[in-house]
Every structure is written in structure tokens, then in C-alpha cells.
Amino acid sequence: MRTALVTGGSRGIGLAIVKELGRAGYRVALVATRGEEHYPGSREALKEAGVDYLWLYGDVGNGDDRKRIVREAVDGLGEIHVLVNNAGVAPKVRSDLLAMSEESFDDVLNTNTKSNMFLTQAVALQMMKQEVRGGKRGTIINISSCSAEVSSTSRGEYCVSKAGISMLTKLYADRLAPEQIYVYEIRPGVIRTDMTRGVEEKYTRMIESGVFPIARWGRPEDVAKAVRAFCSDDFCYTTGNYIDVDGGFHIRRL
Fold it and tell me: How far is CA 39 from the centre of its chain?
């Protein structure tokens, strides 16, 4: 059985990824900030989907927690064939770029970018010990955002954090290709999750006004299906690639 480690897996995009990979036959270790008992709805959804999962918890922004998470994932799964770096936070308060606090910048970059760097490092070292299977030793997928390219001056720290993830994708793709570990990035656009709830009215107006060629809200499942595709053995001559899951928002139009 193939295995996967998914951070931020208790809700939203992460939960959809866990379910999608579970349906595809993976045993999945998901990482949440708290224990399984705090997420009864998610637990029920996973059981209804028939997912074989291992629930881990901790703060991916904390170095000791990251080491423990990888150790527990290996103990529980045996090997890690897929890592999905999905965990992320938005700034607690949206503020103008000229008013952004250092505390907010550090908080967002620590969770979104630093954790990605060092969790990937730890999992890559584990993957390098594994046998080649299906043409590779492992697959690493980073969930970034259209904000890696699109300016939002009221949440600059988020944009910077996601742009950093894009560069980490390139760096690790370059470094790990000789090890037959392939690295990809998915850039979601406007996806209906808890993170977008506070700006739902704004994005709905944008959708209705024709800003997005595919005129609907994105769903977590849209992102999860892209993850499953990259996890397959069909992309073994590609690495460092990204895909926009954004309803065509990335298209420049006159």
C-alpha cells in the first residue's frame, strides 16, 4: 500500500486531499493542530469515505513537533511515498502593507514557508532511504496559492510566504531529481473554505462580474484531484512544475 503525509489535513483543502488519496488506495497520515477528538465532523467524513488514516497532531511551525511528526508517520506508515505540504495560515488581521507588523510577518512566514522548508527536508531524507517504486522514490506536492503571483497589499505577508513556497518547489525539484523524488506545486485560486469565509461577499462579486473565466467558486475537491494526478506514476519525466487551480484567473485578458 502506498502512503502519504498531509499537513493541515483536518479540514478544508487538506481534508479533501486526505479523502481523495484515501479513495485512491493510499494510507494517509494527516497532521492537525489538535487531536482527532476535536474534529468529530472530519473524523466522521473520513470514516464515511472509507479512508485508512493515521491522525497526528502538532504545530508544523515548531521544529521539535516537525521531527516528532515525521518519526510518528514513519512508525505508523512504514514509508512515506507522498508528502503534501498543505498547512497554512492567513494573517490574523488584514492590514495595509505600510502598517504590517513584524509579528504578523514572522507568524505567517514561519507556518507557511519555514515549516515547508524543513518538513520537506526531513521527509526527503526519509524518502532517499526508500526503494524506487513506480519510477520514483517519492512525490512532494506544495499547496501554495495564486497569491504567489498576485499582489494583495492588505495581506503582503501571505503573498510573500506563498512566493517563497514557489521557490522552494524549484529548489527541491532541482536537488531531489537525481534521487528520483519529484516535486510539484499547486496554486489554488478562490476556494470556498474557512479561510475565505470572511471575504466571501467580495469574491462572489468578483465571480459574478466575470473576473474568473470559469465563473464559480473553487471547491476543495478541485485541488484534491490535482494532487491525486501529481501523485500518480504518469509524471516521472516532470518535476518543478506547477498547476493553477483557479478557474482560469491566471489568464491575462484584454
Answer: 19
Length of the chain: 254
Q: Is 158 a catalytic residue?
A: yes
**Residue 188 three-state SS:** strand
What's the distance, Cα to Cα, between the start and end of the chain in Å? 49
Dmax (CA) for the chain in angstroms is 54
User: What gap in Å lies between CA 188 and CA 71, rounded to an integer?
Assistant: 29
Our CA angle for 162, 168, 170, nearest 5°, is 115
What pLDDT, on the 0 to 100 scale, is given for residue 195?
80
Residue of 26, 53, 57, 158 with catalytic role: 158
Running along the chain, 254 residues long, what does each successive block of 10 average in pLDDT? 97 97 98 96 96 97 97 98 97 96 98 98 98 97 97 97 98 98 98 85 93 96 98 96 97 91
Interatomic CA distance for residues 33 and 66, integer angstroms: 12
Q: Residue type at 245?
A: V
Q: What is the pLDDT of residue 196?
A: 83
For residues 10 and 42, the answer to whether their CB atoms sit within 8 Å is yes
**Amino acid identity for residue 69 in this structure:** I
Helices (H) and strands (E) in the chain, counts: 8, 7
- Would you state the pLDDT for residue 235? 95
